[in-house]
Design brief:
The structure holds two protein chains of two kinds.
Chain A (H helix, E strand, L loop, with lengths): L9 H10 L4 H19 L2 E4 L1 H16 L10 E5 L26 H8 L3 E6 L33 H8 L5 E6 L5 H6 L3 E4 L19 E6 L2 H11 L29 E5 L9 H16 L3 E5 L7 H16 L17 H12 L2 H14 L4 H22 L5 E5 L14 H5 L6 H6 L3 E9 L8 E8 L5 H15 L13
Parallel strand pairs in A: 2-3, 2-4, 7-8, 7-9
Antiparallel strand pairs in A: 1-3, 4-6, 5-6, 5-10, 9-11, 10-11
Chain B lengths: L2 H7 E12 L38 H13 L7 E2 L2 E4 L9 E4 L6 E2 L2 E5 L5 E13 L3 E5 L11 E5 L6 E7 L6 H18 L11 E11 L9 E6 L2 H20 L7 E6 L4 E7 L9 E2 L6 E2 L2 H9 L5 H11 L4 H8 L2 H14 L2 H19 L10 H12 L5 H12 L5 H8 L7 H14 L1 H8 L6 H11 L6 H12 L1
Parallel strand pairs in B: 12-13
Antiparallel strand pairs in B: 1-10, 1-11, 2-16, 3-4, 3-15, 5-7, 6-7, 7-10, 8-9, 11-12, 13-14
Helix pairs in contact in B: 3-4, 6-7, 8-9, 8-10, 10-11, 13-15, 13-16, 15-16
Classes of the chains: A alpha/beta, B alpha+beta.
Bound molecules: zinc ion.
Chain lengths: 494, 490
């Protein structure tokens, strides 16, 4: 065998398991062994599921023996811990749900299991998906597999770290304002957020319902396409999931970009990000051109309002979504004199500072005196952002821009909330517009004071429902550039 | 001033908010059964328990029920509607927000037509009807009176959480306790006729709050209102409103000021009491529920529902009183008993004699029904056979005495009255010669009574008529018997 099992792509593993040259038990066993080897340094998982994974692998082997062909047979899967899995604790990285056992399984997770994937663990995350570094988890530290002194990104940091460290072949993350794309970029992965409504949110513990979207974190575009094809499609349990046929993407991966018009966003000038970073993106745009794409300048005049808009809408929705964590029915309860005091003390003890901050902002933005000034205006701004994209897509097929303004940063480097919020500057506008977008590795930068080269991500974005084109183009770029293969994670060195 | 005089000086103004649990197979946003009662927490799922990650999916039948109700009251059905979240913390509300409707309800306007005991029609306009979900139910244990104060612990039953609830909000256009009850009765009858709810107050499927204020007669401004909650029957609605009006008049008369507040109704002591001040009202932070897509109500749907509306109770009331000449009380009695009304209608159609149909259905037939505890509509007397009987009476083929006997036998299952009459020769005798013979025989056999009659004791006439009827085995035409007797004794 050429490469270690854990380093093979999901597509490769599925082919081998379906073909009989590898068993799901071996494939899952390899991932579990890798977890045992590196997890103490990476900390990707809050709940590893060795026993369940082995049992699941045996089931997959039985199904394959019975003649089923499963698109993700034997593929190890890390699930962000805000997605429910029956009988497994689902914590959202929060003290308030630290011991909560989910009584049902999220649709997206179930669809991957049906497709033959094996859940090897529940991955760490910023508490209730609020954060861009995974440092807001109340339950553990996750390190970037490419530099253990740095963050993996967030909020799907555990999912990204697990795949980056070969502890899982694929992962599910959730993206509200960039929470798949940014950690994808930080961990040398494809981080893909599909069109809003394309993947059921049933079983995803909500942060901001109108923005949340489940998507894959994978090491190749082909793997992202396989995962997307398995999880996309209408779910009668989620009325925001779109009832419209899904075009399979894994069979439409492109070899070149000829004939495609790609927009470069004028406002997203990379020169102020530093010479090294500017150079990476400059090269990336040239590579797109070399692959046959026609580059155009596009303008997103309202993109600058994205961040402010997002930080009103997302907290507003979260203040309401998180009300149910009150100590009455499940999760943490602090005993107190009366029910009001119980609510207060439970929530005071159960939520971390970032969650509390956003609940407060959201409660304020929705309060009767400020609703029109903040929430309503933010909704209007959101419409304008979406319109900017619509207009831009009249001229181009795709838009390219950075996925994050820097590579992975060191722990505690972003101590004030605002500089952390700025990490999502490039990803938020697409979330507000509900567009499909992904991050694909586009180069390496060794930051000042850093000792190792760190991956950077190129963000590609497409009109709604254009996942096939988006993944197709990303595949052509990935194949031609092969940036992801240039360096190995730090954890594989020992 | 006496109470009555004071009530002439002030006018009470009442607005009513009704919560109606809708009759659907499943709950508002999930697939759990929508049924009353059951072991606590057995009709629940992740969605109606508000479990993390669960999502609501709106029940189309419930939406249709609200539109149906709106159309029955002549409301407008806007082309777009949406669900909003009403945010507040409450232990038996699973998500700590209620999915409701705020600025875009399913129906706008309309009016509830109601009638008073004397049959006069009145109407109260509706502000809106909107759709929301119900909460669970708390039981406080370990305290003597079931109140939360002093209880050792509380138990929550979520069976009712997520049950579809329709809220009908009236304009303040009801001017007395009597009218408030008449309004509620009309609302209840209509919803029952529409089949959208069981509207059982005792099961909580109909709950109402009343906003009460008073103002000097002649004034058009609204006074400060109080909201009365916890009324669990139309009787308590009546009593509570009366008592609240009296309380407010007393305050104003003694120079006081009404405080806007929520008041509870104490059934035992017959008074309202302060619950909480409205000044401390919550900021519910309504906003569109991002888990539910906005609804587009297409005109075709609305027209389809409109075409399926049954005859409305107020229209039926007008038909019964105007066309059939029924007394308001009798018309109401029929309308409030839907199977009986349907039975009645079939008798009218088959006999074409509404008055007789009413007399038999509400009279002899209802008496038999009461005696035997069998509803008329389920009895062995078919509406068609009753109609046959009515035709026999109206055609003077039988007299009312025979009719009564026949009905008793039909109740036992004797079938067609016509065939009994034929088989047993029960047809009324109107042959004057035959009757004269009976009369002569009776006069001859009762010399003393005849003497008394001639001496002026005319009240014994009835006895003689009875004897003639008996001799004819009940078949003689009573009118003829009377006439002949009078002639012969006169
Ligand atoms: Zn349910």
């Amino acid at each position: 065998m050429s490469t270690e099992i854990v380093e093979r792509s999901a597509a490769q593993i599925a082919r081998e398991v379906n073909g009989g040259s590898l068993s799901a038990r071996e494939a899952a066993g390899a991932a579990l062994a890798q977890i045992d080897r590196v997890e103490s340094r990476v900390g990707a998982f809050l709940t590893p599921l060795h026993g369940d994974a082995r049992a699941q692998a045996d089931l997959v082997d039985a199904r394959v023996r019975a003649g089923e062909r499963l698109p993700l047979a034997g593929v190890s899967l890390a699930v962000k811990d805000n997605m429910c899995l029956t009988g497994t604790r689902t914590t959202c990285g929060s003290k308030i749900l630290e011991r909560w056992i989910a009584p049902y399984t999220a649709t997206a997770v179930q669809r991957l299991v049906n497709a033959g994937a094996i859940v090897v663990g529940k991955a760490n995350m910023d508490e209730f998906a609020m954060g861009s570094s995974c440092e807001n988890s109340a339950l553990g530290v996750t390190r970037n597999p490419y530099d253990l002194d740095r963050v993996p990104g967030g909020s799907s940091g555990g999912s990204a770290a697990a795949v980056g460290a070969y502890e899982a072949a694929i992962a599910l993350g959730s993206d509200t304002g960039g929470s798949i794309r940014e950690p994808g970029a930080f961990c040398n992965l494809i981080g893909f957020k599909p069109t809003y409504g394309r993947v059921s949110r049933y079983g995803l513990i909500a942060f901001a319902s109108s923005l949340d979207q489940i998507g894959p974190l994978t090491r190749t575009v082909e793997d992202a396409a396989l995962v997307y094809d398995a999880i996309a499609g209408h779910d009668p349990m989620d009325s925001t999931s779109i009832d419209r046929p899904v075009e399979p993407t894994a069979n439409g991966l492109l070899e070149s970009l000829s004939g495609l018009k790609i927009g470069i966003v004028r406002q997203f000038d990379t020169r102020e990000l530093g010479d090294d970073i500017d150079e990476v993106y400059d090269r990336a745009y040239h590579d797109l051109e070399a692959l046959g794409a026609e580059l155009h300048d596009v303008s997103l005049p309202t993109a600058d309002y994205g961040l402010a808009t997002y930080y009103l809408i997302a907290p507003a929705e979260c203040s309401s979504n998180l009300a149910r964590f009150d100590g009455v029915r499940y999760g943490l309860r602090v005993e107190a004199q009366d029910v009001q005091a119980m609510y207060e003390q439970t929530r005071a003890a159960g939520f971390g500072p970032e969650v509390k901050r956003r609940i407060l902002i959201g409660t304020y933005a929705l309060s009767s005196g400020y609703y029109d000034a903040y929430y309503v205006r933010a909704q209007k701004a959101r419409t304008l952002v979406a319109r900017d994209f619509e207009k831009a897509f009249e001229d181009v097929d795709l838009i390219a821009c950075p996925a994050a303004s820097s590579p992975a940063f060191a722990f505690n480097a972003k101590s004030d909330p605002y500089s952390m919020y700025m990490m999502d500057y490039y990803t938020i506008p697409m979330s507000l517009a509900g567009l499909p977008a992904l991050s694909v590795p586009c180069g390496w930068v060794t930051p000042p004071g850093g000792t190792r080269p760190l991956p950077m991500g190129l963000q590609l974005c497409a009109p709604i429902f254009s996942e096939k084109l988006l993944l197709g183009a990303a595949h052509a770029y990935e194949r031609a550039t092969q940036h992801a293969l240039k360096h190995k994670p730090q954890v594989s060195e020992v | 001033m006496s109470q009555t005089l004071l009530e002439r000086k002030y006018q009470a103004v009442i607005g009513i908010e009704c919560h109606v649990e809708l009759k659907t197979a499943t709950k508002m946003f999930c697939g759990c059964a929508n049924e009353f009662g059951g072991e606590p927490n057995t009709k629940v799922c992740p969605v109606c328990l508000g479990m993390p990650g669960s999502l609501p999916v709106a029940n189309g039948v419930a939406i249709e029920h609200v539109i149906r109700s709106g159309l029955a009251f002549g409301a407008q059905i806007p082309a777009f509607s949406k669900f909003d979240r009403k945010n507040y913390f409450y232990p038996d509300m699973p998500k700590d927000y209620q999915i409701s409707q705020y600025d875009m309800p399913l129906t706008l306007g309309g009016e509830v037509k109601f009638w008073r005991e004397d049959g006069t029609m009145n109407a109260c306009r509706l502000v809106r009807i909107h759709l929301e979900e119900d909460t669970g139910k708390s039981t406080h244990a370990g305290s003597g009176d079931g109140r939360i104060a002093g209880s050792a612990y509380s138990l929550v039953d979520f069976n009712r959480a997520g049950v579809p609830l329709m809220e009908c909000v009236s304009e303040p256009e009801i001017y007395g306790a009597q009218d408030a009850v008449a309004y509620l009765e009309a609302l209840r009858r209509t919803l029952l006729a529409l089949g959208v709810s069981d509207v059982k107050m005792e099961e909580g499927s109909l709950r109402c709050d009343a906003n009460v204020s008073i103002r000097p007669v002649g004034s058009s401004e609204l006074g400060t209102k109080t909201e009365i909650k916890n009324m669990n029957s139309f009787r308590s609605v009546h009593r509570a409103i009366e008592s609240e009006i009296a309380r407010q008049i007393e305050i104003v008369e003694s120079g006081g000021r009404i405080v806007q507040e929520t008041r509870g109704w104490d059934e035992v002591n017959g008074v309202t009491h302060s619950m909480r001040s409205k000044e401390l009202a919550h900021d519910y932070r309504y906003f569109p529920d991002p888990d539910l897509v906005p609804m587009e109500i297409v005109p075709e749907t609305v027209e389809k529902i409109r075409a399926s509306l049954p005859e409305l109770p107020w229209k039926r009331f007008e038909r019964y009183t105007a066309e059939y000449g029924l007394e308001p009380k009798q018309a109401t009695q029929l309308i409030d008993n839907v199977p009986l009304a349907e039975y009645f209608e079939r008798v009218v159609t088959a006999s074409n004699h509404p008055q007789q149909a009413k007399n038999f259905v509400l009279g002899e037939l209802s008496r038999l029904a009461n005696e035997t505890q069998t509803p008329v509509a389920e009895s062995k007397v078919s509406p068609e056979h009753l109609a046959e009987l009515i035709v026999l009476v109206e055609g003077k083929s039988i007299n009312s005495k025979i009719a009564k006997e026949l009905l008793a036998r039909m109740w036992e299952g004797a079938g067609s009255p016509k065939s009994i009459v034929q088989a047993e020769g029960l047809a009324q005798t109107s042959d004057p010669a035959a009757i004269e013979k009976f009369v002569d025989d009776v006069i001859a056999a009762n010399e003393k009574v005849v003497a008394d009659y001639k001496a002026g004791k005319t009240n014994v006439g009835g006895f003689l008529v009875g004897q003639v009827m008996k001799a004819s085995r009940g078949k003689a035409d009573p009118a003829l018997v009377n006439e002949l007797l009078r002639r012969k004794l006169g």
